[in-house]
């Protein structure tokens, strides 16, 4: 029997898992399309968050890359830039297997970067650098798989990754440096593109460029922390510092770049609420000092939770002071107060205008966003309703098809059953016939025994009929099995029908809910339209108010500009008065007693020249620069003219001095004309050149006074210095020998307390002289080093002549040391022979310490700070100071010893004698106090005379 034909093929039904997967992929595709679009605005973080959550649901990045590579990154540079940003976020915050799945897409990123890299500026260069950064990040994680995408590891994990292997730490540091180089190159290009695009952080184009810097800062913070810790560990392990010299230099360079990167980012308003960046220290860590590692603190970058709706807030721009009024001129200060008042009013008006403008923009943006959202919701609901209606129609068609299929199956089943009944009736008829034949044969068996052959033949035919009957029985069984299968299929169809009815009811309920939701949205839309009208009216009111404020601001601006010009004019006129007063003072007879050294006058020339050159670059629209520059020019040149007049007084030639004074007055007249040009906003380039030439002429005249005053003495400075140094050595040697002789004589002639006092005093003086000898020796070595380094190809005499003031100071110091040594010797001699006072010895010791200090200072003026001889001279100076303190302490101890020996015995005095001695002692105290006051007056007078003589010798 032929096999039965199956019913028409039913539509395959999707399982719930397949439907859920399709919905998930659809949501991922929509999130990526919303996050990565062609609008020049920052990526919405809520869409990126959906993509990141999707990687955790699938535990891979395959679906992300499948939809990300479909985006038109090769056609739109904004899409390519945002794709790099989203990929960076997914690698940092996505499932850990994203780093593994993304390795095979490095070539795709490289192709995007090469394509846009042909644009040498703007987004093209930024995209190329960003793709290089992402490829380097993937390579870094491939080499170091134990670092997560966000790079956050504990100190123990970092040590475990390094494995206490110097080579691992060394290679890891190089890879981190490469990573940081890519980040620094990208951020520098982004900030440079902002300047060229004339955009800032509070505009959508600027924020679109700046947004990817947030994950870059997060990566850079971790890499900087690990580099510091690993470099300290390497410096502790490796004995040689030269091996890590390259690492230190590269770290310092990246430290400066990161510090500038953090400062630039912190100064932008856009990042205030998005990321908290800890500032780097002023100086990089010193890896050669282990103590710096103990004070190093890991600073974490904090990214606060981002809001769902990322509205842009533009703060009003605050204007700083327009004029710098820091110069200490009373007239300028009063004018500055008026300017500050006007600036405050001006700033308030600007802030109010900016506030109203921002409110209008904010309302306009809110209205537009609400309208767009409502339109999108209406379109979404309409499309959803249409889709549901199509689904209902499709389900009804399927139901009709299922019913038709069921009817066809029932008709086929009935036909099969009818055919089976007819076959059974034919079988029964045949069976009855055979039965009748069998009965007839049995009845006729006895009578027909002779006809055995014929009967056997008939019997064989009957057996064949029985076999056929057996076959018919088997066919009947098969038919019963087919009927059972058909009945099972009917039951399954019945169940599918019931499920279909359930789905139909669910769809009808969904349609009903959608209609209710549409009605609610329409009601909400009506309310929003009403709010829109209200906002429109309010916006018009604000616009009228803004126009009024703009008119007021324009009037205030005109008044402000006029006041500003008046202030500039008055400030420059005040500077002219200062300069005229200085020119007038040149002829004042009272200034004839004032003197100034030519070297100091020469030092003032640089400041005057700087102010004159600065005046050439002043913009006449920059009022603050005009006031500041005119004040600097007036003050510095007034001081220069007066000091030039004072320098004239030092000239022995009266006519030469008058010539220099006239030059100073002429310079003042030229400066007055320069100030006039600044006040009238005219160029003064020719006058500035004339003033510079006159400055150099006055300074040259001063140098001429210096040379004429030295005369022939300058030629003998070297000989004078050698003579004084030899005299100093001789005086110190004689004093040391004389003290030794006094000690020998005292030991031979004295005994008891007298001998003890003399020995202590002379021993301390001997130690002091030895310390002075060492000091003088070190001073000579340093002097030779200074002359050898400073003279170049010139002779020593030329060096001393060229540095005559330093040489004079050195000669004066040598004389002072020699005189102090002789004074110490005289004081010690008087004390030993009982004719002197211990106070004289204290004064002598202090005087010799001061003289040696003068010698040290004179030597230190021109010495190299890193000189070993200078270091030894400083140590010798400390030795002299210590020896001087020992002398003073010894004198005090000896004085107490002598007082104890001469203690007054009052045990045998009567009342009258004690009273008389008390009165005598009071008289003596008054006499000593009077003598002390007179001696102090005499000391002060001598010091004043000494300072006067010293000043005359220097000039």
Using brief descriptors, characterize the structure shown.
955 residues, 6 domains, Serine Threonine Protein Phosphatase 5, Tetratricopeptide repeat, elongated
pLDDT under 50 segments (min length 5)? 1-11, 307-336, 709-714
Structural class: mainly alpha
Looking at the structure, the CATH topology of the largest domain is: I/LWEQ domain
What oligomeric state is this?
single chain
Radius of gyration from CA coordinates: 54 Å
Main beta sheet: strand number and arrangement? none
CATH-defined superfamily of the largest domain: I/LWEQ domain
Helix amount: over 70%
Shape: elongated
Q: How many domains comprise the coordinates?
A: 6
End-to-end separation in angstroms reads 143 Å
Q: How much strand content do the residues show?
A: under 5%
